[in-house]
Specification:
- Among the domains are: 73 residues, His-Me finger endonuclease fold; 43 residues, no CATH class.
- The termini are far apart.
- The chain is 54% helix and 5% strand.
- It is mainly α.
């Protein structure tokens, strides 16, 4: 066994301002992590480095400063611009940029510039836009579908066919009214 002196956390030492050769007023925590740092200060330093790396990446890829990022997040209410649920606590919100605008600005589509940036999105919403290639028509159809699904039309048509069949008494009268009900226009414009 070696009689190596135990390492103490340099951040803990700085907090209590121990002078060399002076006995610390409290028991110092061991420092198993590089630095040397204790577990608590290692976590703080790791988070600081992660946030600094994210800021550098945003600046490098999108030309977005930390102040602009904070202002943009504030404009969005501190959450994802689409779902308004994700707040970037566990995973930072992604910078969403317009790929078509990137082509117009003469740079790589995967990179952006300040003019290409649209907002901050959670991973799920950012991926949703990418999967549907930023096509607004897809999302308009999805909104119309959610407001009035096709099954609602089918229920109305079958209910009107049953009531017409009961009122007319003959199957041919019901079939005629059902066909008339089926020819009624059901466009997404009427549903919304």
């Amino acid at each position: 066994m070696s009689s190596a002196r135990p390492r103490h956390c340099k951040d803990c030492l700085a907090e209590i301002a121990v002078r060399p050769g002076q006995k610390p007023p409290v028991k110092l925590r061991p420092a198993p992590h590089p630095g040397p740092r204790c577990v608590t200060h290692h976590r703080v330093e790791a988070l600081r480095r992660k946030q600094a790396a994210q800021e550098r990446r945003r600046e490098q890829f999108y030309g977005l400063s930390a102040e602009e990022h904070t202002a943009l997040l504030g404009l969005q209410g501190g959450a994802c611009a689409i779902c308004q649920k994700a707040r970037g606590v566990r995973r930072a919100l992604a910078v969403d940029h317009d790929h078509a605008a990137a082509r117009d600005h003469d740079h790589d589509e995967d990179k952006g510039c300040r003019l290409c940036v649209r907002g901050l999105l959670c991973k799920r919403c950012n991926r949703l836009l990418g999967d549907y290639r930023d096509d607004p028509a897809v999302f308009e159809r999805a909104a119309a579908y959610l407001r009035w699904p096709p099954m609602a039309d089918l229920r109305i048509r079958s209910a009107s066919a049953r009531s017409a069949k009961g009122a007319g008494g003959s199957p041919s009268a019901g079939a005629g009214s059902s066909a008339a009900g089926a020819s009624a226009p059901a466009t997404s414009g009427e549903r919304t």
